[in-house]
TrEMBL record:
GO terms for molecular function: oxidoreductase activity. Belongs to the short-chain dehydrogenases/reductases (SDR) family. Keywords: Oxidoreductase. This is SDR family NAD(P)-dependent oxidoreductase. It comes from the Bacteria.
Amino acid sequence: MAGWNLEGRTAFVTGGSRGLGFAIAQALLDRGAKVAIAARDEAAVKAAAGRLTAGTRAENVLPVVADVTDADSVNSVLAEVHAWQGALDIVVNNAGPQLTPSPLETIDEKNIASAFDTKLIGYVRVAQAALPLLSRTGSGSIVNVVGATAHMLIPNAGATGIVNAGVVALTSYLASEGAANNIRVNAISPGMTKTEGWLTKTEAMGQQQGKSPEEVRAGMAQGLGIRLNRWADPAEIGAVAAFLASDDASYVTGQVLRVDGGMTKPVA
Protein backbone atom coordinates (compact mmCIF):
# COMPACT_ATOMS: atom_id res chain seq x y z
CA MET A 1 0.00 0.00 0.00
CA ALA A 2 1.27 3.47 -0.87
CA GLY A 3 2.23 5.86 1.89
CA TRP A 4 -0.05 6.83 4.73
CA ASN A 5 -2.49 4.21 6.01
CA LEU A 6 -6.11 5.32 5.89
CA GLU A 7 -7.73 1.93 6.45
CA GLY A 8 -11.13 2.22 8.10
CA ARG A 9 -11.55 5.90 7.18
CA THR A 10 -14.45 7.36 5.21
CA ALA A 11 -13.70 10.35 2.97
CA PHE A 12 -15.76 12.85 1.00
CA VAL A 13 -14.22 14.77 -1.92
CA THR A 14 -15.97 17.60 -3.77
CA GLY A 15 -15.21 18.15 -7.43
CA GLY A 16 -14.13 14.51 -7.47
CA SER A 17 -15.04 13.59 -11.03
CA ARG A 18 -11.87 14.99 -12.62
CA GLY A 19 -8.66 16.91 -12.13
CA LEU A 20 -7.22 17.36 -8.67
CA GLY A 21 -10.38 16.08 -6.97
CA PHE A 22 -10.14 12.79 -8.83
CA ALA A 23 -6.41 12.49 -8.07
CA ILE A 24 -7.01 13.15 -4.37
CA ALA A 25 -9.84 10.60 -4.29
CA GLN A 26 -7.52 8.08 -5.94
CA ALA A 27 -4.79 8.76 -3.38
CA LEU A 28 -7.19 8.30 -0.47
CA LEU A 29 -8.60 5.11 -1.97
CA ASP A 30 -5.13 3.69 -2.66
CA ARG A 31 -4.28 4.17 1.00
CA GLY A 32 -7.28 2.25 2.26
CA ALA A 33 -10.05 4.81 2.69
CA LYS A 34 -13.57 4.39 1.41
CA VAL A 35 -14.27 7.45 -0.72
CA ALA A 36 -17.41 9.33 -1.74
CA ILE A 37 -16.88 11.66 -4.69
CA ALA A 38 -19.23 14.51 -5.47
CA ALA A 39 -19.89 16.55 -8.60
CA ARG A 40 -22.86 18.28 -10.20
CA ASP A 41 -22.85 16.09 -13.33
CA GLU A 42 -24.31 12.67 -12.50
CA ALA A 43 -22.93 10.95 -15.60
CA ALA A 44 -19.45 12.37 -15.01
CA VAL A 45 -19.29 11.41 -11.34
CA LYS A 46 -20.52 7.87 -12.05
CA ALA A 47 -17.95 7.48 -14.82
CA ALA A 48 -15.24 8.72 -12.44
CA ALA A 49 -16.33 6.20 -9.83
CA GLY A 50 -15.97 3.48 -12.45
CA ARG A 51 -12.38 4.57 -13.17
CA LEU A 52 -11.58 4.69 -9.47
CA THR A 53 -12.90 1.20 -8.83
CA ALA A 54 -11.06 -0.38 -11.76
CA GLY A 55 -8.53 -1.77 -9.31
CA THR A 56 -10.66 -2.19 -6.22
CA ARG A 57 -14.10 -3.25 -5.05
CA ALA A 58 -16.98 -1.09 -6.25
CA GLU A 59 -18.40 -0.80 -2.73
CA ASN A 60 -15.35 1.26 -1.71
CA VAL A 61 -16.47 4.23 -3.81
CA LEU A 62 -19.73 6.16 -3.64
CA PRO A 63 -20.57 8.62 -6.43
CA VAL A 64 -22.96 11.37 -5.32
CA VAL A 65 -24.47 14.39 -7.03
CA ALA A 66 -24.11 17.67 -5.18
CA ASP A 67 -24.08 21.38 -5.92
CA VAL A 68 -21.84 23.26 -3.48
CA THR A 69 -23.69 26.50 -4.22
CA ASP A 70 -26.86 24.99 -2.68
CA ALA A 71 -26.83 24.48 1.10
CA ASP A 72 -29.71 21.99 0.99
CA SER A 73 -27.86 19.90 -1.60
CA VAL A 74 -24.69 19.95 0.49
CA ASN A 75 -26.48 19.02 3.73
CA SER A 76 -28.35 16.20 2.02
CA VAL A 77 -25.29 14.67 0.40
CA LEU A 78 -23.18 14.84 3.58
CA ALA A 79 -25.94 13.01 5.45
CA GLU A 80 -25.97 10.40 2.68
CA VAL A 81 -22.21 9.93 2.86
CA HIS A 82 -22.26 9.62 6.66
CA ALA A 83 -25.05 7.03 6.47
CA TRP A 84 -23.11 5.07 3.80
CA GLN A 85 -20.45 3.88 6.26
CA GLY A 86 -21.90 5.21 9.50
CA ALA A 87 -18.89 7.49 9.83
CA LEU A 88 -17.12 10.49 8.32
CA ASP A 89 -13.41 11.06 8.84
CA ILE A 90 -12.03 13.08 5.93
CA VAL A 91 -13.50 15.96 3.94
CA VAL A 92 -11.68 17.45 0.96
CA ASN A 93 -12.95 20.79 -0.31
CA ASN A 94 -11.86 20.97 -3.93
CA ALA A 95 -14.81 22.09 -6.10
CA GLY A 96 -14.16 25.42 -7.74
CA PRO A 97 -14.82 27.29 -10.98
CA GLN A 98 -12.53 27.69 -13.96
CA LEU A 99 -12.17 31.43 -14.48
CA THR A 100 -11.10 33.02 -17.74
CA PRO A 101 -8.01 35.19 -17.07
CA SER A 102 -8.94 38.85 -16.86
CA PRO A 103 -7.64 42.01 -15.22
CA LEU A 104 -9.72 43.11 -12.24
CA GLU A 105 -10.25 46.44 -13.98
CA THR A 106 -12.47 44.84 -16.62
CA ILE A 107 -13.74 41.57 -15.12
CA ASP A 108 -17.50 41.23 -14.75
CA GLU A 109 -18.33 41.42 -11.05
CA LYS A 110 -20.74 38.51 -11.55
CA ASN A 111 -17.77 36.28 -12.34
CA ILE A 112 -16.09 37.23 -9.07
CA ALA A 113 -19.33 36.71 -7.13
CA SER A 114 -19.79 33.30 -8.75
CA ALA A 115 -16.23 32.29 -7.87
CA PHE A 116 -16.78 33.29 -4.24
CA ASP A 117 -20.10 31.42 -4.13
CA THR A 118 -18.68 28.22 -5.64
CA LYS A 119 -15.30 28.01 -3.97
CA LEU A 120 -15.05 30.09 -0.80
CA ILE A 121 -18.67 30.01 0.34
CA GLY A 122 -19.00 26.51 -1.11
CA TYR A 123 -16.19 25.41 1.19
CA VAL A 124 -18.02 27.05 4.10
CA ARG A 125 -21.24 25.20 3.24
CA VAL A 126 -19.44 21.86 3.10
CA ALA A 127 -17.60 22.53 6.36
CA GLN A 128 -20.81 23.55 8.14
CA ALA A 129 -22.54 20.36 7.01
CA ALA A 130 -19.53 18.15 7.75
CA LEU A 131 -18.39 19.40 11.16
CA PRO A 132 -21.30 17.89 13.15
CA LEU A 133 -20.66 14.54 11.43
CA LEU A 134 -16.87 14.35 11.52
CA SER A 135 -15.19 11.97 13.94
CA ARG A 136 -14.06 13.46 17.24
CA THR A 137 -11.63 10.60 17.93
CA GLY A 138 -8.66 12.15 16.12
CA SER A 139 -9.41 10.95 12.59
CA GLY A 140 -11.57 13.97 11.73
CA SER A 141 -9.83 16.12 9.14
CA ILE A 142 -10.72 18.76 6.55
CA VAL A 143 -8.34 19.50 3.69
CA ASN A 144 -9.01 22.60 1.60
CA VAL A 145 -7.51 23.01 -1.88
CA VAL A 146 -6.25 26.57 -2.36
CA GLY A 147 -3.97 27.62 -5.23
CA ALA A 148 -0.75 29.48 -5.90
CA THR A 149 -2.55 32.74 -6.71
CA ALA A 150 -3.10 33.14 -2.96
CA HIS A 151 0.67 33.49 -2.50
CA MET A 152 2.07 35.08 -5.64
CA LEU A 153 0.96 37.57 -8.26
CA ILE A 154 0.00 35.91 -11.53
CA PRO A 155 -1.09 38.30 -14.31
CA ASN A 156 -4.85 38.49 -14.87
CA ALA A 157 -5.56 36.04 -12.04
CA GLY A 158 -6.75 38.59 -9.49
CA ALA A 159 -10.22 37.11 -9.05
CA THR A 160 -8.79 33.67 -8.37
CA GLY A 161 -6.21 35.15 -6.03
CA ILE A 162 -8.83 36.96 -3.97
CA VAL A 163 -10.92 33.82 -3.58
CA ASN A 164 -7.90 31.66 -2.75
CA ALA A 165 -6.69 34.15 -0.15
CA GLY A 166 -10.12 33.84 1.45
CA VAL A 167 -9.69 30.05 1.59
CA VAL A 168 -6.36 30.52 3.41
CA ALA A 169 -8.13 32.61 6.06
CA LEU A 170 -11.02 30.16 6.21
CA THR A 171 -8.59 27.31 6.86
CA SER A 172 -7.07 29.06 9.85
CA TYR A 173 -10.41 30.03 11.40
CA LEU A 174 -11.91 26.56 10.86
CA ALA A 175 -8.82 24.97 12.41
CA SER A 176 -9.25 27.15 15.49
CA GLU A 177 -12.91 26.25 15.84
CA GLY A 178 -12.45 22.57 15.02
CA ALA A 179 -9.68 22.01 17.55
CA ALA A 180 -12.14 21.83 20.46
CA ASN A 181 -13.65 18.73 18.83
CA ASN A 182 -10.30 17.19 17.89
CA ILE A 183 -10.84 18.02 14.21
CA ARG A 184 -7.86 19.19 12.18
CA VAL A 185 -8.18 21.60 9.26
CA ASN A 186 -5.38 22.21 6.76
CA ALA A 187 -4.95 23.21 3.14
CA ILE A 188 -2.82 22.30 0.18
CA SER A 189 -1.88 24.91 -2.38
CA PRO A 190 -0.99 23.24 -5.69
CA GLY A 191 1.08 24.84 -8.40
CA MET A 192 1.14 23.93 -12.08
CA THR A 193 -0.29 20.42 -12.37
CA LYS A 194 -0.90 18.18 -15.38
CA THR A 195 -4.65 17.87 -14.96
CA GLU A 196 -6.91 17.13 -17.92
CA GLY A 197 -7.79 20.81 -18.23
CA TRP A 198 -4.18 21.97 -18.36
CA LEU A 199 -3.16 19.17 -20.74
CA THR A 200 -5.87 20.27 -23.15
CA LYS A 201 -4.95 23.93 -22.74
CA THR A 202 -1.21 23.43 -23.28
CA GLU A 203 -1.92 21.29 -26.34
CA ALA A 204 -3.97 24.12 -27.84
CA MET A 205 -1.25 26.63 -26.93
CA GLY A 206 1.32 24.40 -28.58
CA GLN A 207 -0.64 24.26 -31.81
CA GLN A 208 -0.82 28.06 -31.85
CA GLN A 209 2.89 28.43 -31.13
CA GLY A 210 4.19 25.57 -33.28
CA LYS A 211 5.45 23.72 -30.21
CA SER A 212 4.71 20.44 -28.48
CA PRO A 213 2.62 20.53 -25.28
CA GLU A 214 5.74 19.41 -23.40
CA GLU A 215 7.68 22.38 -24.76
CA VAL A 216 4.89 24.75 -23.74
CA ARG A 217 4.85 23.38 -20.20
CA ALA A 218 8.63 23.51 -19.98
CA GLY A 219 8.59 27.15 -21.08
CA MET A 220 5.94 27.99 -18.51
CA ALA A 221 7.89 26.20 -15.78
CA GLN A 222 10.93 28.28 -16.62
CA GLY A 223 8.96 31.51 -16.91
CA LEU A 224 7.25 30.98 -13.57
CA GLY A 225 10.54 30.12 -11.89
CA ILE A 226 9.47 26.68 -10.67
CA ARG A 227 12.52 25.46 -8.76
CA LEU A 228 12.04 21.81 -9.72
CA ASN A 229 11.66 22.97 -13.34
CA ARG A 230 8.65 20.77 -14.11
CA TRP A 231 4.91 20.47 -13.60
CA ALA A 232 3.38 18.22 -10.95
CA ASP A 233 1.72 14.93 -11.68
CA PRO A 234 -1.77 14.96 -10.13
CA ALA A 235 -0.78 11.95 -7.99
CA GLU A 236 1.85 14.12 -6.28
CA ILE A 237 -0.87 16.51 -5.15
CA GLY A 238 -3.09 13.64 -4.05
CA ALA A 239 -0.31 12.15 -1.93
CA VAL A 240 0.07 15.36 0.08
CA ALA A 241 -3.67 15.60 0.68
CA ALA A 242 -3.59 11.99 1.91
CA PHE A 243 -0.72 12.83 4.24
CA LEU A 244 -2.58 15.74 5.81
CA ALA A 245 -5.62 13.53 6.35
CA SER A 246 -3.56 10.76 7.96
CA ASP A 247 -2.36 10.10 11.49
CA ASP A 248 1.16 11.02 10.37
CA ALA A 249 -0.08 14.62 10.36
CA SER A 250 -1.84 14.30 13.71
CA TYR A 251 -0.11 17.41 15.12
CA VAL A 252 -0.66 19.57 12.03
CA THR A 253 -3.59 21.97 11.86
CA GLY A 254 -4.27 25.42 10.48
CA GLN A 255 -1.46 25.09 7.95
CA VAL A 256 -1.25 25.67 4.20
CA LEU A 257 1.21 23.34 2.49
CA ARG A 258 2.44 24.67 -0.84
CA VAL A 259 2.78 21.77 -3.25
CA ASP A 260 4.15 23.76 -6.15
CA GLY A 261 7.68 22.58 -6.87
CA GLY A 262 9.10 25.75 -5.40
CA MET A 263 7.13 28.15 -7.60
CA THR A 264 6.24 30.36 -4.65
CA LYS A 265 9.27 31.48 -2.68
CA PRO A 266 8.55 32.64 0.88
CA VAL A 267 11.62 33.52 2.93
CA ALA A 268 9.94 33.50 6.34
